[in-house]
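tool=predict chain=A
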Amino acid sequence: MKKVIAVLAASVAMFFCAVTSHAQDVILTQDGDIIMAVVTEISDAEIVYKAFDNQEGPNYKIATSKVQKIRFVNGTEQTFATAQPAPQSDVPTAFQSADRAPSYNAAEVNRSGYMQHENGDFLVGGRTIYEGEYRNYFNDDEFETINGALKQRRAGKGITLAGAGCAGFGLGLMIPAGVCLAVFDYSYTYYALLCTGAAFFGVGCTLLSVGIPLYCIGNGRLNWAADSYNQRNRMSLDLTVGQYGPGLAFRF
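tool=predict ok
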């Protein structure tokens, strides 16, 4: 009798082991693949699981955007939202990749819209156009003017910054040296600092007197190029006298 009980107990144990060994989760991917797994973790971004036939092996990960649903061993299911493709735009973006600017064809560029110049850049319809596109928008005279104006503007900006730095450094030396000379007895060190500060301040003011006008002239020439483009591409409704008498003329 004891032997029979022992055999039955062993059979029951083997049955539960078999059932446990076949406990598995099923991952159904967006592509229709089925993965037999043991899911260990679920987050908003990914699902961590072990292969069902190698539960002591490494962890595997799959993005939740690639999964339709998981059917767990207890019969419950968890469904994941289907990822929607990003909308495509007909308007060319500033950069199509991190290291390469897109190429544009003059015939494909939408040339309508008001052009603005802001901080050395030209914008048409709110989109910045790049130097490689300038030939699509400007004639030869405007293009040459822009090249020279950009150099002027950059040079003026650099000279202005250098002048401001020199003038600020000079003031930083002159003010404390002057205070010390006024409060304390005369000292060659204070006098030398005052003279050095005055020299730096003079150089800074000279650079500012050169850099600021140069920067403003470059900016003005760039504004002229934008205005010239707008004048050539403007649309207007004018009163005119033609072959058949007075009337309205639509110009663009």
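The chain has a mean pLDDT of 76. Helices lie at 2-21, 134-137, 140-183, 188-233.
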